[in-house]
Design goal:
Elements lengths: L1 H33 L9 H25 L4 H26 L5 H29 L1
Helix pairs in contact: 1-2, 1-4, 2-3, 2-4, 3-4
Keywords: Membrane, Transmembrane, Transmembrane helix
Protein name: DUF2177 family protein
InterPro entries: DUF2177_membr
């Protein structure tokens, strides 16, 4: 039951915070640089698939080891931040390397956002799982 709580909490926190970040932090930057490439409405199925998979992999590498080894929330945040920086950095630096209108501002904004988002979501999920589960 604790794993179910951990997954739902992490997934829910990630969705809620990312909705705000995408709306008010990331989207304005991307609009300035590649706005003509962006859809009016996002494709929900691939977005949901990403969120579901990302949360599961985050649990595998960070949150479940934290619970089973009784790691601190600071440990969770640090490891999740590293995971988020690697994941978001892979997308951003690859895009910057091959797309002509990609910018350093986009890279810095999205990698910073993904690092923060992943750290907070993992720590919040572990905290709630310990509290409830």
């Amino acid at each position: 039951m604790t794993l179910v709580i951990l997954y739902i909490a992490t997934f829910g926190i990630f969705l809620a915070i990312d909705f705000l970040g995408l709306s008010y932090i990331v989207k304005p930057v991307f609009d300035r640089h590649v706005g003509d490439l962006l859809l009016e409405d996002i494709r929900m199925v691939p977005a949901f698939a990403f969120y579901a998979f990302y949360a599961a992999v985050l649990l595998w590498f960070v949150s479940v080891p934290a619970l089973s080894q009784d790691k601190s929330l600071l440990w969770v945040m640090g490891n999740a931040a590293l995971f988020g920086a690697a994941a978001y950095g892979t997308y951003e630096f690859t895009s910057f390397a091959v797309m002509k209108d990609w910018s350093w501002e986009m890279v810095a904004t999205d990698v910073t956002w993904g690092t923060f988002l992943t750290a907070v979501s993992a720590a919040g999920g572990v905290w709630l799982a310990r509290l409830i589960g």
